[in-house]
Give the backbone structure.
Amino acid sequence: MNSCGFSKNRLLELHFNEGSGRDRQTARDHVAHCSQCRDYMATLDQTNQSLQAWPREEPAPDSWEKVLFQLPALEEERDESKPVLSVFPVVLIGLSALACLGFIFLLDNVLDFIPLWQSLKSSVVGDVLGSYGLTALLFFLVGTLITLSMSPVIILEGDRQDLFVPNKQ
Ligand SMILES: [Zn+2]
C-alpha cells in the first residue's frame, strides 16, 4: 500500500505534463527521493505504453455484407411468430364463448330452484326470451356489472403501464 501522502493529482499532472511548472518541479523533486511515488509513476508509464502498444483494429472488409446477410433471417423469424400470436387469441375467444354457454346452461338449471325465477320465466319477458334467453340476459347483465366494477382497476393498470413504457426504452 502507498502510505505516502503526496497528492496523486500532482503525480498525474507530472505524468501528462499538465499543471503549472512549479507544481511539476515540486512533484519531480518529491519523486526523486520517494520510492513509493516512483513506483506509481512507473505504473503510469507502463499503462501508457500498454495502451499505445494496443494495435488499432480495422473492421473486416466484408463486415457490411455480413450484417446485411443477417437481416433477412431476422425478418423471417418475426414473420413466423405472427401466426402463433394471431391464432392464440381466436382460440381463447372460442373457448371462453363455449365456457359462457356452458355456464348459462348450468345457471339455468340452478335458477329453476328459485321461486322468483319461475315467476320471471312465466312473465312476458320470459315468454319472449325463453328460459335460456332469460338466463343469458342475467349472465351478461352480471358480467357487465363485474366489468364496470373492475374498470377503475383496468384504467389504473393501463396508466401504470404507460408510465413504465419510457423506462423500458
Ligand atoms: Zn511519495
User: Anything to note?
Assistant: Helices lie at 8-15, 21-33, 35-53, 63-111, 115-121, 124-168. The pocket of zinc ion is lined by residues 4, 6, 30, 34, 36-37 (CB under 6 Å). The chain is about 85% helix and 0% strand. The mean pLDDT is 80.
